[in-house]
């Protein structure tokens, strides 16, 4: 925690970060996990497996979502929740931190992490704007908040830098990728080989 936030760590804060690491460690075959498994199928070493996963996480549509949520919350701080939601929809065409393809009825990881955040920092002024943005999203019939919104909430409540949540995400996934790699090493090598079909024009 000391490297992530200037604030003194409390047992509840450490528990919240540990909870985030557990909730984020694995999520089926997300893009980064698939990349890691493909690398493992070529019998790349663990460093190569992690590098493959990090390459996918570095894409702006994967690991960086929590930073977009932090920008959304910063605008809400300055201009209000409605203006922040309008700005996000105009910039991204969607609301960052809301909705998850696998969970159409709501990402179950988000309320679990939010409960840990509330236990550590409940009542903090930093959470007020988070709840205002969530309420504005509900008014507009947006999908429920996802784990990226909860992760950004954790970073904001703990006084972390905007990109700290992405570091938590990556560290958590590294544990998951290594578990996938160990499993993949027991499979037939090079099994990820899709066949291409050329279609002339």
Written description of the protein model:
It contains nine helices and no strands. The chain is mostly helical and 201 residues long. It has one domain (11-184). The mean pLDDT is 93.
Radius of gyration, taken over Cα atoms and rounded to an integer in Å: 19 Å
Biggest sheet character: none
Q: What is the β-strand count?
A: 0
Number of helices: 9
Key features of this structure:
single chain, 201 residues, mainly alpha, 9 helices, 0% strand
List the topology elements.
Elements lengths: L10 H14 L6 H11 L4 H12 L7 H15 L1 H12 L16 H13 L4 H14 L7 H11 L6 H21 L17
Helix pairs in contact: 1-6, 1-9, 2-3, 2-9, 3-9, 4-5, 4-7, 4-8, 5-7, 6-8
Structure described in brief:
The protein has one domain. By secondary structure, the chain is mainly alpha-helical.
């Amino acid at each position: 925690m000391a490297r992530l936030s200037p604030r003194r760590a409390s047992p509840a804060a450490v528990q919240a970060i540990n909870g985030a690491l557990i909730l984020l460690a694995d999520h089926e075959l997300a893009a980064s996990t698939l990349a890691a498994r493909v690398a493992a199928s070529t019998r790349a070493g663990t460093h190569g497996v992690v590098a493959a996963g990090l390459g996918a996480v570095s894409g702006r549509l994967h690991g960086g979502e929590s930073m977009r949520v932090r920008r959304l919350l910063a605008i809400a701080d300055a201009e209000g929740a409605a203006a922040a939601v309008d700005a996000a929809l105009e910039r991204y065409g969607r609301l960052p931190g809301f909705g998850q393809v696998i969970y159409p009825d709501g990402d179950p990881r988000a309320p679990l992490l939010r409960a840990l955040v509330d236990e550590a920092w409940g009542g903090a002024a930093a959470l007020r704007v988070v709840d205002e943005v969530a309420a504005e999203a509900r008014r507009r019939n947006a999908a429920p908040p996802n784990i990226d919104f909860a992760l950004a909430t954790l970073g904001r409540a703990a006084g972390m830098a905007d990109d700290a949540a992405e570091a938590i995400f990556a560290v958590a996934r590294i544990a998951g990728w290594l578990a996938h790699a160990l499993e993949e090493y027991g499979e037939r090598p090079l099994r990820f080989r899709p066949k291409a079909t050329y279609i002339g024009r």
